[in-house]
Automatic annotation (TrEMBL):
Keywords: Nucleus. Residues 707-755, 1145-1320 are annotated as: Disordered. It comes from Aquila chrysaetos chrysaetos. This is MYB binding protein 1a. It is found in: Nucleus. GO terms for molecular function: E-box binding; RNA binding; transcription corepressor activity. Signal peptide: none annotated. Residues 724-755 have a biased composition (Acidic residues). One of its GO terms (cellular component) is B-WICH complex. The lineage of its organism: Eukaryota, Metazoa, Chordata, Craniata, Vertebrata. GO terms for biological process: cellular response to glucose starvation; circadian regulation of gene expression; intrinsic apoptotic signaling pathway by p53 class mediator; positive regulation of anoikis; positive regulation of transcription by RNA polymerase III; regulation of G1 to G0 transition; respiratory electron transport chain. InterPro entries: DNA_pol_V/MYBBP1A. It comes from the Eukaryota.
Length: 1320
């Protein structure tokens, strides 16, 4: 408040009157200074609303005073908040003169009068004041205020240490908003010195460039010549100085990673002056690029990207073939390492923005072709999967595709800006080899064409088909003679395609097929829109499959004499081709008559295999012939007759084998189509067909998968060889990988143990050459003998090295084969999941359970590499979600009832025998799934009807009849199975079963509660250990809480169950000793929880159960040795005692007051442990007062916690001393439970005498060492004190004062409440 009445008080007539109006008005200014932007904005709005509603002059004047003062606040967040608020106030109240506010700002933040340490705040106060005037929108209208503000900004520009370039930028912003007349009349005069010195700093140059663009009639060439001697900014004379300024600007903006504004304005001025070519070649390429620094290079790249929308077609072509483009390409190639800054994504953003905003087709085409022709040894720098093509207009896209096709056929490197990196220049093998460049360019083009179909660009069906035909033709065909009948054969390649080029095109074509299979319907017709709404993919607007159109095109090529296949067909292969086409046509006729999805799935598979004839003819022929036979049988009118024929496999089994072999292929399209076909044939799947799939997952039958693995391995090798990139980064990484492998192999060679056979052979060679020294021969070997010996030894080591390498190769082959097999099994799991999802009601589902369990069990005990973990997780998810948790299950199990009961018994026994509980859980869950199936089925034979429900129960519990129904369950047999499992769980010490398994059983099948509840009740006392007894209490508690249980028992049985449960719990608690050990705590806790439920039932339902014995046991449990000070047990105990009409006694706090008042008198020295707290003195006081430590019942001295309160050390109280944690909280039950014990008054007397005695002997015992203390304690304290250990006096003195006070208060409270144990 004193601040408000100080400086500037003359502005407000009556500041006290403003302040008396309340805190709400002043709180606005506090909120404006807060760091949260939302709070500042809300406070500004509220302040404006308050001022507009009040219209009081004194409030407005006070507001201006506070806002002007806040402009120079110390907190950074407060300054812009006050500046914005001042701007809003000036904008809302136009009657406030701008000049008076500016004068007030200058007066408050006077740079000349302010102290040196407040210069920074004053500079910011002036700056934010001008910013507020400018943001109000009124500064430009007031010429005098504008002139003074510009002069103030010029003055602030000298304070660069604090404000940096903020005044110059604000000056430029103001100038860009000023009208031309105001600039000429007001500002031009005072800015002449700044404009004349434009070439001294980037800020002054920026000011000039903005003025030239904004006020061309004022800053015309004549005036420019007067200012700095030349009519233009960009000329040969000024280029060197401009380059220096731009370099300075680049280095100042390097942290922001953006193009400096002065550079972009200079680009625009050069275009305006017609000197862009001079600026680009002399200033950028020959000036800026010569300095090999990152910020300058990145500024040139950003300038290139920003210039694209401003340049004409000729200028674009000049820029895109210049040195900046080449250096950008070198940057992209050489920054492949992950930790290097990559500019390529930013440049792609510039291209994307240009293509999106440009409507000129020629300029669009020039830019996309310009970046496509920036090549590194033939391979374009622009990514072949770049998404920028999505903005191309249809005509430009068509021209770009035509250009790509033409470059593929007739590569023209004269139009390319080709370069080589330094590493490539050193490696002279591939430099300047035309074939190498052509191969790299064609590889990029074919991928670029395939990716255009995948990109979300607006395209026509004709363009998609054009690209597909082109890729297919050059993958599998060659032109013998030009013909106009086939577009792709109309032009001969200038350089014929070699085998590698065909292989690359082949692989990218199959990727294109995958894209076509998932392609949405193209076109704007109503039919196309209807197909899109149905989410139909892979077809044209008229409903034809894309793959079918390609097969038709392939058939046309096979019939033409002007082209030839790269791999010509034999007569048998051509017959299979013709047969496939005929089969597809037959299926198309049936498409509307039968299941269309099944027909389309078979069509896709047939067409895909037909196209694969061009790739792997020998392998595809066998699959195709079997597939054709299966298709004919699948769609024949009498398919069921084959099911009874066991002599040869049915068409379903053959189809499954085909699909399994196709799953081994690396093609995603093949696997997807195979899965879709499998889904369609699932209803026809037989047990033999399912067994073929399950055999793949069997860990003991991996030898059956060798053929599939070989197919997969070969195809993967082909893909890797075709898709191996030749880019710089990949070469570097491969080199590094080779060196790492060499190092690994060297290490392995060093660690390789020498076997005995090799040692024996080496000894023989040395003995044969007399190289081993001995007593018999002292002669040295001659040169010939030495050479012969060396030759033999080298041959021996070479042979040994070959054996070692052969072992490594075999080991590596086995490892790769294992990876391939595991990957194949993961793919086969997709078929299992599809079968379980689509055919959940099929009886064959039961055959899947054990194979999946074997896989889970085997994976749990095998290696834990990532692939194995993925395989295990996928199998477990399928087992849980697609099998056990499915809501649909088989409804026809009457014939399988006996087998399913045996299956349940087998699963439960395996769960019991298992040692791993996680695996046992899956076996137990499978048994519960079978129980669900058996209970959900109704037996055809006569079965005992469910007992009728009483009317009350049938009304209160919904679906009660369904709960009582057993379906096909043999209750006696199932009860025995689970009773044995439950007994084992509760009597065996180490069982893999868990309580959650049985809780799941009781919750899902309440009908199992009644037969098993007796076992639970008996196990409360008969359990193997305390843990099993606690689990029995827990399970019984869960069972009693199930409301369905009362459906299966009568009222007498229910009362007897409660009575027996209480009796068992009572006996269990009797077994607990007077001192509850750690092992008993869990059992006692669960017993008390169960008792709480039982007593609640007895009380609420008014059952006739005697609780006398229980009452005695519980009261006896509430002893110092019983519950102790366990908060959880204490809470559970009193929850139970509440049902027996006992109340928990309240703590008395009045007894602590005298001790607390006397406590400050005892502590006279601060910072030292009081004498009353020193252990030895306490003991002396105890001995002198005649209070000896009390012995326990078994004759041994009591533990420290059982002695007088206050005799334990601080570390014992915290549980840090060994032996002190076991019984440290035993007396809490006595204190809190309110059981009266005699002798409390005597303790207080003894304690007071002990304190007086200890004070007298303070000096004598201060500096005793630990040994001496121990000796004294041995004389004064019984022998039990030695065994418990002690803490030295020095350690006690290190405890802080706060801890001493807290411990002292806690001890005194215990002295008041706790009763000492009576002495014998």
């Amino acid at each position: 408040m004193a601040e408000l009445g100080g400086q500037g008080g003359g502005v407000v007539a009556d500041p006290r009157g403003v302040l008396r109006q309340g805190r709400a008005f002043l709180d606005f200014f506090w909120d404006i200074a807060k760091p949260e932007q939302e709070v500042r904005l809300a406070a500004t709005e509220n302040l404006l609303r308050h001022l507009k509603e009040g219209r009081k002059d004194d409030e407005l004047k006070y507001t201006l005073k506070r806002l002007v003062e806040g402009l120079g606040a110390t907190r950074e967040a407060a300054r812009p908040g006050f500046s914005l608020a001042l701007a809003q106030v000036l904008q809302a109240f136009e009657e406030i003169p701008m000049c008076s506010v500016l004068e007030q700002i200058k007066e408050k933040h006077n740079l000349e009068k302010v102290k040196k340490k407040l210069v920074r705040n004053a500079a910011f106060g002036n700056f934010f004041g001008v910013v507020a005037l400018f943001q109000s929108g009124r500064l430009i209208k007031d010429r005098k205020a504008l002139l003074e503000s510009i002069q103030l900004l010029q003055q602030l520009a000298h304070h660069q240490a604090h404000l940096r370039d903020l005044p110059r930028k604000t000056l430029i912003d103001i100038m860009s908003e000023v009208p031309e007349a105001v600039f000429e009349e007001v500002l031009f005069g005072i800015l002449q010195s700044d404009l004349a010195s434009a070439f001294t700093s980037p800020d002054n140059l920026h000011l000039l460039l903005v003025g030239i663009q904004k006020f061309p009639s004022v800053l015309k060439p004549k005036n420019l010549k007067k200012l700095f001697g030349s009519p233009t900014v960009v000329n040969e004379k000024n280029i060197p100085r401009l380059v220096e300024l731009l370099q300075s600007a680049a280095k100042s903006e390097k942290k922001d990673k953006k193009l400096p504004s002065v550079v972009f304005d200079l680009l625009q001025v050069s275009l305006k002056e017609g000197a862009f070519e001079l600026f680009w070649k002399e200033g950028v390429e020959d000036g800026l690029l010569k300095e090999k620094s990152g910020p300058v290079s990145y500024m040139c790249y950003r300038l290139l990207g920003s210039a694209l929308p401003l340049l004409s077609l000729d200028q674009l072509q000049m820029v895109l073939k210049g040195k900046v483009m080449q250096q950008y390409g070198e940057h992209v190639v050489t920054t492949q390492l992950p930790d290097r800054f990559k500019f390529a994504p930013e440049m792609e953003g510039y291209i994307d923005e240009f293509l999106n905003s440009c409507d000129d087709l020629e300029r669009q085409l020039a830019v996309i072709i310009g970046f496509s022709t920036l090549t590194n040894q033939g391979y374009p720098v622009l990514s072949s999967s770049s998404r920028v093509v999505r903005h191309l207009q249809p005509v430009a896209l068509q021209k770009y595709v035509d250009w790509l096709k033409d470059m593929f056929l007739r590569p023209d490197f004269d139009c390319c800006l080709d370069f080589s990196s330094n590493r490539q220049k050193q490696n002279q093998e591939n430099v300047n080899i035309p074939q190498h460049k052509i191969a790299r360019l064609r590889k990029w083009i074919i991928h670029r064409l395939a990716n255009i179909i995948e990109s979300p660009v607006k395209k026509e069906e004709s363009l998609v088909m054009d690209i597909s035909r082109f890729c297919f033709f050059h993958a599998f065909f060659e032109t013998k003679k030009k013909t106009s009948q086939i577009c792709e054969a109309n032009v001969l390649p200038s350089d014929p395609l070699d085998e590698e080029a065909h292989s690359v095109a082949e692989n990218y074509f199959f990727g294109l097929l995958q894209t076509l299979n998932t392609l949405t319907v193209l076109g704007d017709t109503a039919k196309a829109a209807a197909l899109r709404e149905k989410h139909i993919h892979g077809v044209t607007a008229d409903g034809k499959l894309w793959i079918f159109l390609i097969v038709e095109y392939a058939n046309k090529l096979l019939s033409s004499e002007h082209v030839k296949a790269v791999k010509p067909f034999t007569k048998g292969q051509r017959d299979a081709w013709e047969r496939t086409l005929q089969s597809v046509k037959n299926l198309q006729k049936k498409e509307n008559k039968s299941d269309s999805a099944k027909v389309i799935a078979f069509q896709q598979l047939l067409l895909l295999m037909a196209i694969h004839l061009f790739k792997n003819q020998s392998e595809t022929m066998d699959i195709l012939s079997d597939l054709l036979n299966c298709t004919e049988k699948a769609f024949s009118k009498e398919p069921k007759k084959k099911k009874t024929d066991n002599a040869e496999p049915g068409w379903v089994e053959v189809m499954v084998e085909i699909l399994l072999s196709l799953l081994a292929q690396p093609s995603l399209l093949v696997r997807r189509i195979s899965k879709s076909v499998f889904v369609r044939i699932c209803p026809n799947l037989t047990k033999r067909g399912l067994q073929l799939i399950l055999d793949v997952l069997d860990p003991y039958q991996e030898q059956n998968e060798e053929s599939a693995v070989v197919v997969m391995e070969e195809s993967e090798k082909k893909i890797k060889s075709a898709l191996d990139t030749d880019e710089e980064g990949s070469e570097d990484s491969s080199d590094e990988g080779d060196t790492e492998e060499e190092n690994d192999s060297e290490d392995e060679e060093k660690n390789e143990e020498v076997d005995d056979d090799f040692r024996t052979q080496l000894m023989n060679v040395l003995q044969a050459g007399n190289a081993l020294g001995g007593d018999e021969s002292d002669e040295e070997l001659d040169d010939e003998a030495m050479m012969a010996l060396d030759k033999n030894i080298s041959a021996l080591f070479a042979e040994q090295q070959k054996r070692i390498q052969a072992k490594k190769d075999e080991k590596d082959r086995m490892r790769k084969e294992k990876i391939l097999r595991r990957d194949f099994k993961i793919k086969v799991l997709d078929l299992i999941e599809a079968f379980l999802t689509k055919q959940s009601e099929n009886p064959l589902v039961f055959d899947v359970i054990e194979p999946l369990l074997r896989v889970i069990e085997q994976c749990m005990s095998s290696d834990s590499d990532k692939q194995e973990i993925d395989f295990l997780q996928k199998t477990a998810n399928i087992f849980k979600n697609s099998l056990c948790r499915t809501k649909q299950y088989c409804k026809r199990v009457d014939a399988l009832k006996e087998d399913l009961h045996a299956f349940v018994e087998r699963l439960v026994k395996k769960a019991c025998k298992h040692t791993d509980s996680s695996v046992a859980l899956y076996y137990f869950s499978a048994s519960l799934y079978l129980l669900k199936v058996l209970r959900g089925n109704t037996s055809d034979k006569s079965s005992t009807p469910p007992t009728p429900l009483p009317e009350k129960q049938s009304n209160t519990i919904p679906q009660a009849c369904q709960l009582l129904s057993t379906g096909c369950l043999d209750m006696e047999r199932v009860t025995v199975i689970y009773q044995q499992a439950l007994t084992q769980f509760l009597t065996k010490r180490n069982s893999a079963l868990t309580s959650s398994m049985f809780h799941d059983l009781f919750r899902r099948f309440p009908i199992m509660c009644k037969p098993l509840v007796d076992t639970l009740v008996k196990s409360i006392t008969a359990g193997a250990r305390q843990h099993q007894q606690a689990q029995a209490c827990l399970l019984l508690q869960k069972v009693l809480l199930l409301r369905e249980l009362k459906l299966f028992v009568t009222e007498e049985e229910w009362e007897e169950l409660i009575r027996e449960s209480i009796s068992q719990v009572t006996e269990s608690l009797k077994m607990v000793g007077k001192r509850i050990v750690k092992a008993d705590k869990e059992k006692v806790a669960k017993s008390l929880e169960l008792l709480n439920i039982l007593l609640k039932i007895v009380t609420e339902q008014k059952l006739h159960v005697k609780l006398t014995e229980l009452d005695k046991v519980l009261v006896a449990l509430n002893q110092p040795e019983g519950i102790g000070n366990s908060a959880r047990l204490d809470s559970l105990y009193w929850n139970v005692m509440r049902w027996l009409n006992y109340t928990k006694p309240k703590k008395e706090k009045t007894a602590n007051k005298p001790a607390q008042e006397a406590e400050p008198l005892k502590r006279k020295k601060k910072g030292f442990l009081p004498e009353t707290k020193k252990r030895k003195n306490r003991k002396k006081g105890i001995e002198e007062n005649g209070v000896a430590p009390v012995a326990s019942e078994d004759g041994e001295p009591a533990a420290p916690e059982e002695q007088l309160l206050g005799t334990e050390t601080p570390k014992q109280k915290k549980g840090l001393v060994p032996g002190s944690s076991k019984h440290k909280n035993q007396n809490r039950g006595v204190r809190e439970n309110g059981v009266p014990v005699a002798g409390s008054g005597e303790e207080a007397v003894n304690g007071g005498d002990a304190v007086a005695d200890k004070k007298k002997k303070k000096k004598k015992n201060m500096n005793r060492k630990r040994k001496g203390d121990a000796g004294n304690e041995a004389e004064q304290v019984p022998a039990a004190k030695k065994t418990k250990g002690s803490v030295s006096q020095e350690t006690q003195q290190k405890q802080g004062k706060t801890n001493q006070q807290k411990q002292g208060k806690a001890k005194k409270k215990r002295k008041e409440k706790k009763t000492p144990v009576p002495q014998e």
